[in-house]
Amino acid sequence: MFRIVMKRLQDKWKSYRYRFVPWIALNLGKNERTIRQVTERSKDRLVSDEVVSETLLHLFRALLRNDVAQQGEVFRLLPASTRTRYLSPETTEGPDIGEPKGEHRPIETMLLTVGFCIERKPSSLPFAGTGVFVTRGFVPKGSTVAMYPGTIYQAYEPILFQSIRNPFVFRCIDHVLIDGNDKGISKIVYRSCSGRDRLGPFRLSDITWLTANTENPLAVGQYVNNCSNERAANVCYQEYDVPEAFPLELRQYLPNVNYRHDTQRHRYGVKSISKVEGVRDETSLRVQTQKKCGRASRGWVPRVYRPAESTN
């Protein structure tokens, strides 16, 4: 009986220690390869926002084009020129984008559009729960491979109850928090905020990431595990602000909402994960933590970090 209890406690500790601040502080410097060195905030971005926007627009347009049958109400309210872009086969933006097939298959659309697809599966790391795998295709260096979904909280907004036993709270360099939990109170809050922000038939955020059948296959970034001493990181986090000019009809694929509707800033913290090295199929994604001018996964920023000033 005693051995069983001790075994359970040991298993819980192996999972919890990565969220226990003193343990992290003592072990942070033991393996420098797990820490991404960022000496200046200007060097934090591995790829420009323009490149990230281009990738998202490329994929989202393909997803919408392949979901024409379910988007009738949205298309009726779009200008004729915009509607033609999605309904006319002559406007296909290149041979790699899937043609409308009458059936919405986001994973296949992603593969046809960006050359790879990712899915959630049991992690190959011990005690790591669910992980994210490249199941088909090849990911070139510098690609955007995932987004961190969830409710966005400014530093002054309440998140106490949502954060209890929640390993998916992500803290950004200016102390903005993103709650990427798809269960419990976090799920209820996200659904409520998403419904609040709806503009007629236009959904301004994606809620399908809360289910097993997400319409945006990128919205699994919260399940990308940290690297370990044995398994080096192959991705890193990069913050991205969605521009105001982002097409209204494509916002339904953005997996983030602001906690307050009157937040006086652009949508913040759609998390893109940029490749450090090329990744082939059947490879799990492992994220780096970042040192100095960066952010840590799972809601904690080490004291060795030096948060940059907030941006307007």
UniProtKB/TrEMBL annotation:
Report the superkingdom from the record.
Eukaryota
Instruction: Please give the PANTHER family that the UniProt record associates with this protein.
Output: C5ORF35, SET DOMAIN-CONTAINING PROTEIN 9
Q: Which named protein is this? A: SET domain containing 9
Q: Which organism is it from?
A: Hucho hucho (huchen)
